[in-house]
Design a protein that fits this description.
The complex is a heterodimer of chains A (111) and B (253). Chain A is mainly alpha-helical. Chain A has helices at 2-29, 38-60, 71-87, 92-110. Helices cover 77% and strands 0% of the residues of chain B. Classes of the chains: A mainly alpha (111), B mainly alpha (253).
C-alpha cells in the first residue's frame, strides 16, 4: 500500500503534469502559434527520436519474457514489420499484427 | 449568388456558439473499430510489460487516466523500476509528450468552434494521443461541426475505459500464457510505436530522427546507461533537425 501511494504521488508531477503541460500549451497556443515554426519542428524531431530510441531499447534490451526470444529474431521481426508497412500501403494496423506474428513464427520455426 | 450563399453557410457553421454534446455517442461507438483493437492489443502488451518488470497493477492502471500516452507510460514504468531519479523520469516523460503539442494543435484546429467556451478544448486536449489524432483525420467527415469536439471526447472516454479494463487482462494473462505468446503481447507496444512514427512521418528529417534515435540508443546505452534515452532522443533529434531542416512547409495544416 505504501509503495503504491509513493508511486501515485510521484506520478502526479512526473507523469500527469509532465504530459498535460504540452496539451494545455497547445490549447493556449492554437489561436496564435504556427505549428511549423522552427522551434516546434525541432521539438518534433527530438520527441520522434526519443520514441524511436525507446522502441530500440525495448527491442534490444528487454526485461523479462521478451528476453527469452533471440535478439536476431526480435530485430528480424521489426524489419519484416517495416517491410509489410510499405507492402500494405502504409497500414499501421496490418503492419503491427504482421510484426507480432513474424516474431512468434520466427521463434517457433527457428527456435 | 451561389458562392455568397455558401460563404454564409460556412460562417453560420463557424459562428455556432456552443458544442452539441449529443455528438459524444457516435464517438463512443467508434472506439469499437480496428484502430481501437490495435490500441487494445498494445495495452494488453503494456499489462504484460508491467507484470514483467514487477510494477504494481493498480499503479499501472493509474498511468492510463493520468498520462494517456503509451510511450510516456512505458517510460515512467521502466525508469521507475530501474530506480532512475524522479527528475530524470519527469524530463524523459515530458520530452516524449512534446509530440502531443503539435498533434493537439492539429486536432483542435479542426474541431474547435471559435465563438464557443474554451474549457472543452482543455478537456479534449487531455484525450488527444496518437489513436484519437488518427481517427480525427479519418472519421469526422460525416459529423457536423458542433458535434466534432464532443465526438472526439466520447471516443477518448470510451478508449480510456476500454484500456483500463484491458491492462489487468494482459497483466494476468502474462502469467498463464506460454512464454512465446506472452512475449508476442509485449512486442505489440514497440511495434505499434515504430509503425506509428513511420505513418506520422512527413519530412525527411522525421525519417532521419527515427533512424538516428534507433542507432544512437545502443551507443548511448554503452557509455551512459541512465541517460541513454535522453542522449539518443536529444542528440538524434537535434542532429536530424540541423542537417535536414525542412524547407517546404505547409504540410501540417
Amino acid at each position: 500500500m505504501t509503495q503504491l501511494t509513493l508511486i501515485l504521488a510521484a506520478m502526479i508531477p512526473a507523469g500527469f503534469v509532465a504530459t498535460y503541460l504540452w496539451r494545455a500549451l497547445a490549447v493556449v497556443a492554437v489561436t496564435r502559434i504556427d505549428p511549423e515554426s522552427d522551434l516546434l519542428l525541432w521539438v518534433r524531431a527530438v520527441s520522434t527520436a526519443l520514441v524511436a530510441a525507446l522502441v530500440m531499447r525495448m527491442v534490444i534490451a528487454p526485461s523479462g519474457v521478451l528476453a527469452t526470444i533471440a535478439v536476431e529474431h526480435r530485430l528480424a521481426a521489426v524489419a519484416i514489420g517495416i517491410g509489410s508497412f510499405y507492402a500494405a500501403s502504409r497500414s499501421t494496423q496490418i503492419a503491427t499484427f504482421a510484426t507480432v506474428i513474424a516474431l512468434v513464427l520466427l521463434h517457433m520455426v527457428l527456435g | 449568388m451561389l458562392t455568397m450563399g455558401q460563404t454564409t453557410q460556412t460562417d453560420t457553421d463557424e459562428d455556432v456558439a456552443d458544442y452539441d454534446w449529443a455528438g459524444m455517442a457516435g464517438g463512443t461507438r467508434a472506439a469499437f473499430s480496428l484502430p481501437g483493437l490495435v490500441m487494445a492489443c498494445s495495452f494488453t502488451g503494456f499489462g504484460a510489460l508491467i507484470h514483467d518488470v514487477g510494477f504494481p497493477l493498480l499503479a499501472g492502471v493509474a498511468t492510463i487516466p493520468l498520462i494517456w500516452a503509451l510511450p510516456g507510460q512505458v517510460l515512467f514504468v521502466t525508469m521507475w523500476q530501474s530506480g532512475v531519479a524522479l527528475l530524470l523520469i519527469a524530463a524523459a516523460v515530458s520530452l516524449t509528450a512534446v509530440r502531443l503539442m503539435p498533434m493537439t494543435i492539429g486536432v483542435l484546429a479542426q474541431v474547435r468552434l471559435r465563438k464557443a467556451k474554451r474549457w472543452p478544448e482543455f478537456l479534449l486536449g487531455h484525450f488527444t494521443a496518437v489513436t484519437v489524432w488518427v481517427m480525427s483525420l479519418t472519421s469526422l467527415h460525416d459529423v457536423s461541426a458542433p458535434r466534432q469536439l464532443p465526438w472526439l471526447v466520447g471516443l477518448g472516454t470510451a478508449l480510456m475505459a476500454m484500456m483500463m479494463l484491458v491492462v489487468p487482462a494482459g497483466y494476468y494473462l502474462a502469467d498463464s500464457l506460454p512464454p512465446a505468446l506472452a512475449a508476442a503481447m509485449v512486442f505489440f507496444t514497440p511495434a505499434f510505436f515504430l509503425l506509428s512514427l513511420l505513418s506520422g512521418a512527413i519530412w525527411r528529417f522525421d525519417y532521419a530522427a527515427i533512424l538516428l534515435g534507433c542507432v544512437l540508443l545502443p551507443i548511448a546505452r554503452y557509455y551512459a546507461p541512465d541517460f541513454d534515452l535522453l542522449i539518443a532522443g536529444l542528440g538524434g533529434g537535434t542532429l536530424a533537425f540541423v542537417c535536414l531542416r525542412p524547407r517546404r512547409k505547409g504540410l501540417l495544416k
